[in-house]
Amino acid sequence: MDETLILARAQFGLNIGFHILFPSITIGLAWILFVFRLRHERATNPEARQAWLTTYQRWVKVFAVCFAMGVVTGVVMSFQFGTNWPGYMTTVGNIAGPLLAYEVLTAFFLEATFLAVMLFGMDRVSGRMHLASTFIVAFGTTVSAFWILALNSWMQTPAGHALAAAETGGGRLVAESWLHVIFNPSFPYRLAHMLLASGITASFFVAGLSAWRLLKAPADAGARGTLRLGVHAAAVLVPLQIAVGDLHGLNTREHQPAKIAALEAIWKTQRGAPLTLLGLPDEAEGRTRFAIEVPKAGSLILAHDADAEIRGLDAFPEHAPVAPVFFAFRAMVGMGVLMLGVAWFSTWKLRNGEAPRPLLWLLSAFTFSGWIATLAGWLVTEIGRQPWLVTGILKTADAAGRASGAQLGASLTAYVLTYAALLLSFVVVVTHMASAGEERK
Q1: Do 413 and 421 form a contact (C-beta atoms < 8 A)?
Q2: What percent of the chain has pLDDT over 90?
Q3: Is residue 400 domain-resident?
Q4: Secondary structure of the chain: what % helix, strand, coil (to 5)?
């Protein structure tokens, strides 16, 4: 593979990977904030009202930091469409451009406007208006995910498009049916999968930082409440995610069978395919070394039929590199299983209202566990469709720009150093903000 293409992909992968960390928190955290604000509005006991107000004020600041980081990294990422991938916008800009614009017009402006009311308007607007503003921001984050996932899903399973006439730009795609473009075959599954992923990420984020607060201040009633809310939400959402993930897998087998073959390292088309739990994929030899397999379980999980035929990599002359998606998928599933165990164990331990210190340390350690699962899932999604940027339409290599290897290498280095500093600063700031005591009455 060309050096400049590798660097361009690495740079964009770093940017989108860093960016997704923050929406994966804010989408779910916005709805949690709405719950906090609703509990405050409905509470009749003065002490309870004050406790929910303090909780809301603490977490809305954390949300604002996450939102700001997401905006900044999103802007940087959008510039790379032109600098690193001009062929992408040239070919599919008539579809990608409007979808991105819809996200800004219908979601971002909504979030940015009413976030200001959330932060600075509590003493300037009525309680109902402030509650409505919190709901609008939460709704806006979901709408934002809707448009971004519509575009990403269309790139994975394109539909509703046509080639423009030669006299109006032959070779470029235009939308023939926006309904089919947006609601393409994989969109419902990806949207549900991402919204649940954000809910789980935010739940562990809230539970982990609340646990960190309780380690410093065991008497903080507000932190005990947010700890329970985060743990109980995760205990419900993780099983739902497993069910949605199974449906998503069935859809991927139907529309992107090459991705399924790569992530499961199924080298040859076969009936009753085994499930490879662990192993070392060897593309040169077309086999998985040291494979730990469960007979027929692959077909059972992928098709809900132990004797179903699963197409292997031998059926696809072009497919994604096997090792990255194989290991990323197992990292995602493995972390998901751990998060399920921690959520259910924590729910059981909290049944009497007391949180032992070992449990608080465990939940603190899992504060950012959702990031690991989310990043692993995005690696499967994005690497798994290679060599295509838009499946069956535009290859990644054909969309790359003319930036030199030296330029890409220098900017990639700058991005790595900057994002490492930003990530460290973010972790330090949010842990401090979440663990700080009451600021106002």
Answers
A1: no
A2: 45
A3: yes
A4: 75, 5, 20
8 Å CB contact between 370 and 204: yes
Residue 293 lies in a domain: no
The answer on pLDDT for 440 being more than 50 is: no
Give pLDDT, residue 169.
53
Amino acid sitting at position 336: G
- What's the predicted TM-score (pTM) here? 0.91
Residue pair 35/59 in contact by the 8 Å Cβ criterion: no
Query: What is the pLDDT, as a whole number, of residue 42?
Result: 82
The mean pLDDT of the chain is: 88
In a domain, 277, yes or no: no
Q: How confident is the model over 95-130, as pLDDT tens digits?
A: 988 998 888 888 888 888 888 888 888 888 888 898
Backbone angles phi, psi at 269, to 5 degrees: -60, 130
Q: How far apart are CA 153 and CA 186, in angstroms?
A: 6
CA distance 136 to 236: 24
Residue 52's pLDDT is what? 83
CA atoms within 13 A of residue 43's CA, in its CB half-sphere = 15
Residue 253 pLDDT exceeds 70: yes
CA atoms within 13 A on the CB side of 84: 26
Instruction: Note down the domain range covering 174.
Output: 3-269+311-435
10, amino acid identity: A
pLDDT > 70: what percent of the chain?
97
Assigned domain for 354 exists: yes
How many domains does the chain divide into?
Answer: 1
Read off the tokens for 186: 């994989």
User: Is residue 220 within 8 Å of residue 213, measured between CB atoms?
Assistant: yes
List all residues 6 or more positions away from 242 whose beta carbon is below 8 Å from its beta carbon: 336, 340
Alpha-helical regions (H) of 319-393: 322-349, 357-365, 369-384
Tell the residue number behind the tokens 């069910």, with chain if given.
243
Name the strand (E) or helix (H) holding 134: helix 127-156
- Phi–psi pair at 386, nearest 5 degrees: -60, 150
Residues 25-37 pLDDT 10s: 999 999 999 999 8
DSSP 8-state class, residue 315:
G
